[in-house]
Specification:
The structure is a single chain. The relative contact order is 0.12. The two termini are about 30 Å apart. Helix 4 packs across helix 12. A hairpin with a 2-residue loop joins strand 9 and strand 10. This protein folds into 2 domains: about 300 residues, 3-Layer(aba) Sandwich (UDP-N-acetylmuramoyl-L-alanine:D-glutamate ligase), CATH 3.40.1190; about 120 residues, Mur ligase, C-terminal domain (Protein-Tyrosine Phosphatase, Chain A). It has 18 helices and 17 strands.
């Protein structure tokens, strides 16, 4: 098989949540455990940091990976979903896995994958572990796909686990209340392995604390370790004023990811990096932390988080797609200077729009669209649902045409926002 045929096999033969939605979700660790045993348990060959959470886990994972690279470690990074290229999911020192490595892995293990009926995500996680081991990775940042307890990545034994935050998402699969979802996310906690909580909340702290106590695992609340305020933005970088509690130290940090919500993510990443330096065999200097945050997007090729795509008019995209993520986006839109706002939005069918649409700005002109995926909610259906919440505009059935229409309507001092779904952002990029 060549690379194109290999991808066709992966996306068609093995169920993928990205294309099929909940029907592709295959909970349980039996298949991934058996497959990794078959390939020699490569996930045991390097240190790992395990990152779960509803929002921010992508940003936090990329920041930590960037800092580790700057500290001189050969660093693996496994994230999902991808925006433009499948290989974005698997990186070593910021470089995507080569196409030939993907082809070779599938050729070699094709029959076993089918025998075990692996899901697309299980195969991808195993490919990442194998490639990291082959590449002499010293430490890898591993982001969960969905939930935590039954996620395919949960076969690793990390040096630290991280839960960024918890809000309602994938309720049909993870539970319909915050405590139920928290119990699933807390499933990444391992015996005597510390857990860092990015954003604590009285509605779910107790659930996580109970799981941690049962595992004799120390809980570190990031917000108790660091505080942060935004002290400016220039040349595509945010400047944060940070305070570290343990030694009462103040310092400034630059981050090349924009979006005011990154203030929360930098606190989670800082607490994790501080723990790694203080409590594990890894050594991370202050210089490595500052340079790693400053160049996160540049070093890891991170895309789609409050990413500026154009000026005059200002064009911004963001992959926030659940109520908490959309709330962050709405807050950011409100604080960004503009005359008229045009929003190009599309969602997948299983989103709880009753909790999302009311959060979006009412004074914008909407261009409702749909991405080219089986999971997309038809643009006409979205237009009708949005009208119930006072969001009005027009319907343009495909993303490139919708973006072109927004640019046609917008004046130089207006703003265009593109989002609602990772797929919409991917097609806009």
């Amino acid at each position: 098989m060549n690379y194109t045929q290999t991808l066709e096999f992966l996306f068609s033969s093995l169920p993928a949540f990205e294309t099929k939605g909940a029907t592709a979700y295959k909970p349980g660790l039996e298949r991934i455990t058996a497959f990794c045993r078959h390939i020699g348990n490569p996930q045991r060959n390097f240190f790992t940091i395990h990152v779960a959470g509803t929002n921010g886990k992508g940003s936090v994972s990329h920041i930590i990976a960037s800092v580790l690279q700057q500290a001189g470690y050969r660093t693996g990074l496994f994230t999902s979903p991808h925006l433009q290229d499948f290989r974005e999911r698997i990186r070593v020192d910021g470089e995507m896995i080569p196409k030939q490595k993907v082809v070779n892995f599938v050729d070699k293990h094709h029959d076993k994958m089918l025998e075990l009926e692996l899901s697309f995500f299980e195969m991808t996680a195993a490919l990442a572990f194998d490639y990291f081991a082959q590449s002499d990775v010293e430490v890898a940042v591993i982001e969960t796909g969905l939930g935590g307890r039954l996620d395919a990545t949960n076969i690793i034994v990390p040096v630290v686990s991280v839960i960024t935050n918890i809000s309602l998402e994938h309720t049909a699969l993870l539970g319909d209340t915050l405590p139920k979802i928290a119990a699933e996310k807390a499933g990444i906690i391992k015996k005597s392995i510390p857990i860092i909580i990015g954003e604590g909340d009285v509605r779910y702290n107790g659930v996580i604390e109970q799981v941690a106590a049962a595992n004799k695992s120390k809980i570190i609340y990031a917000e108790n370790e660091f505080s942060c305020s935004n002290c400016g933005c220039a040349e595509g970088r945010q400047h944060f004023c940070m305070h570290r509690t343990r030694d009462n130290r103040d310092f400034e940090v630059e981050l090349d990811l924009t979006g005011s919500y990154q203030c929360r993510n930098i606190v989670t990443a800082a607490a994790t990096v501080d723990f790694l330096h203080e409590e594990t065999p890894l050594t991370i200097s202050r210089r490595a932390f500052l340079e790693g945050t400053r160049d996160t997007a540049a070093l890891t090729s991170f895309m789609g988080r409050w990413q500026k795509l154009g000026e005059q008019p200002l064009v911004v995209c963001d992959t926030g797609h659940n109520p908490q993520g959309i709330a962050y986006v709405a807050e950011q839109l409100k604080s960004t200077p503009h005359k008229r706002l045009y929003c190009v939005v599309g969602f997948v069918r299983d989103k709880d729009l009753a909790h999302i649409l009311p959060l979006l700005p009412h004074d914008a002109h909407y261009i409702f669209t749909q991405a080219q995926t089986q999971r997309a909610l038809p643009a006409a259906d979205l237009t009708a649902k949005a009208a119930i919440y006072g969001l009005t505009g027009e319907t343009v059935a495909d993303v490139p045409a919708a973006v072109a229409r927004a640019k046609e309507l917008a004046a130089d001092d207006d703003m265009i926002f593109i989002g609602g779904s990772t797929y919409v952002v991917a097609e806009a990029l």
